[in-house]
């Protein structure tokens, strides 16, 4: 092996250990950002996309080529060393691009810069089966066949300082989703799709117990003291009561990343952390939203410290806190209906029957507006929404000002009906929202091209 090759490999290895010291096995489970070329394919949509070229593989090849140059001709020692250092830096730059940003191990004193772009990424491994389904997703975009990714902004809501053991509260129940709707509608997006998805996770509970034990041992080794009682108690309470992963994310067309930073979510907090909204350009979030994927494994890896990304793509709550996020809106451009209880329908002589879900995703034809506060019994019913299977409440705002409310998940309609009254629903294609989002991007490209010609 030549001196330049050996030097470049050693330098790249040292840089890898220095940058990925908390995640040395990153290359065994890389979570790559999904490309725009792959996202429509995973959704079963035929579309032409102008995608940005990823230089990471070329950097790896260029670094290896630079390291092998000295084998072609004899060179002075200084030149060989300079060549090896340059090759090592170029090679490591390609590795960073392939494996993602270096891991940051969260700790109690962490304070990350804000506002900043989010660093969470979405994996599409679980969403490939969408391409085999039927419905609107299997059709192409017709005449709107070219998509401009620059008009898309995704966001997710997570603890600001990445403290996964935080259990943010947002009183009163329903206030969180109302504030989110008011903020997004005030921006007048071309299309907006907001998803509040949750699932009760035993994997997250195991990760919390592992993280607490690992953190405790590390602190005792370094400082002779264990975790603060409040931090240890937060881990234990979450693990014992069954953590619920809440993924609040959205896809916005026709807006800027700056609009995301000012989302009114900072009031949702506890003594450890508060929520913040992070923009992202990763179209994997669009695919994960269409698949109703809570990204449970990514969250669990973040908790355990093996895949810390600065902040997880979700946050954790206990079942009693879930009703503060899993509630129907009371404001927004939706079709409203009076709250009608089943006993009142019986008094009118109509047939009484429980609503039956007829599809994986259901659209509310009219949303019952609930203005009074929930009582204890109703909060207990909403807390029962915490289940191992993913469930969601989703909000869609169209460019013409119309809005839709969607629900998904087995049993979700029954629980919401017991609190809000009879819900009139109709099934919709689970990928229809993603298709409409891509149509909005295509329409934006055509309008921008027409304006440029004029």
What is the topological layout?
Blueprint: H1 3-19, H2 39-42, E1 48-49, H3 56-67, H4 77-99, E2 146-147, E3 152-159, H5 175-186, E4 191-200, H6 202-223, H7 229-241, E5 244-253, H8 258-261, E6 275-280, H9 284-291, H10 296-304, E7 315-317, E8 336-337, H11 342-347, E9 361-364, E10 367-368, H12 376-383, E11 391-398, E12 403-408, H13 412-420, E13 425-428, H14 432-453
Parallel strand pairs: 1-2, 8-10
Antiparallel strand pairs: 3-5, 3-6, 4-5, 4-11, 5-7, 9-12, 9-13, 11-12
Summarize the structure.
The protein has 454 residues and is an alpha+beta fold. The chain has 14 helices and 13 strands.
Low-confidence runs of at least 5 consecutive residues:
105-115, 128-139, 342-358
Largest sheet, described in full? 9 strands, antiparallel
Task: Kindly name the structural category.
Answer: alpha+beta
Q: What is the CA-atom radius of gyration, in angstroms?
A: 25 Å
Structure annotation, total helices: 14
Number of strands: 13
The share of residues in helices is 25-40%
Morphology: globular
Mean of all residue-level pLDDT scores: 80
Strand content: 5-15%
Order of helices and strands: HHEHHEEHEHHEHEHHEEHEEHEEHEH
Distance between the termini: 61 Å
Q: How many domains, as an integer?
A: 2
């Amino acid at each position: 092996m030549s001196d330049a090759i050996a030097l470049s490999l050693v330098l790249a290895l040292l840089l890898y250990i220095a940058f990925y010291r908390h995640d040395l096995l990153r290359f065994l489970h890389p979570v790559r950002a999904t490309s725009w070329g792959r996202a429509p394919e995973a959704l079963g949509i035929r579309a032409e996309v102008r995608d940005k070229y990823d230089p990471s593989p070329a950097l790896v090849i260029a670094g290896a080529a630079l390291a092998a140059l000295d084998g072609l001709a004899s060179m002075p020692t200084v030149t060989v060393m300079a060549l090896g250092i340059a090759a090592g830096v170029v090679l490591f730059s390609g590795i960073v691009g392939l494996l993602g940003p270096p891991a940051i191990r969260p700790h109690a004193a962490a304070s990350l810069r804000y506002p900043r772009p989010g660093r969470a990424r979405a994996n599409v491994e679980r969403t490939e089966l969408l391409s085999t389904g039927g419905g609107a997703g299997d059709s192409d975009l017709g005449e709107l066949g070219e998509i401009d990714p620059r008009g898309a902004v995704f966001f997710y809501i997570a603890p600001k300082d990445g403290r996964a053991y935080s259990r943010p509260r947002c009183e009163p129940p329903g206030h969180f989703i109302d504030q989110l709707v008011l903020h997004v509608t005030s921006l007048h997006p071309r299309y907006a799709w907001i998803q509040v998805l949750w699932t009760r996770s035993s994997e997250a509970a195991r990760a919390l117990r592992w993280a607490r034990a690992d953190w405790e041992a590390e602190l005792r080794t370094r400082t002779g003291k264990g975790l603060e009682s409040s931090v240890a108690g937060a881990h234990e309470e979450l693990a014992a009561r069954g953590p619920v992963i809440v993924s609040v994310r959205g896809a916005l067309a026709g807006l800027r990343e700056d609009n995301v930073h000012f989302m009114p979510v900072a009031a949702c907090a506890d003594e450890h952390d508060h929520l913040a909204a992070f923009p992202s350009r990763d179209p994997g979030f669009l695919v994960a939203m269409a698949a109703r994927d809570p990204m449970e494994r990514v969250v669990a890896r973040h908790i355990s410290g093996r895949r810390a990304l600065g902040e997880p793509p979700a946050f954790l709550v206990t079942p009693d806190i879930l009703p503060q996020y899993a509630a129907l809106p009371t404001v927004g451009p939706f079709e409203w209906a009076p709250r009608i209880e089943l006993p009142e329908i019986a008094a009118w002589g109509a047939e009484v029957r429980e609503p039956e879900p007829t599809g994986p995703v259901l659209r509310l034809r009219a949303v019952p507006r609930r203005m009074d506060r929930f009582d204890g019994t109703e909060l207990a019913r909403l807390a029962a929404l915490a289940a191992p299977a993913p469930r969601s409440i989703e909000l869609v705002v169209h460019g013409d000002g119309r809005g839709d409310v969607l629900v998904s998940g087995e049993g979700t309609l029954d629980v919401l009906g017991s609190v809000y009254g009879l819900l009139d629903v109709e099934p919709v294609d689970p990928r229809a929202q993603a298709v409409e989002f891509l149509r909005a991007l295509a329409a934006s490209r055509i309008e921008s091209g027409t304006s440029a010609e004029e």
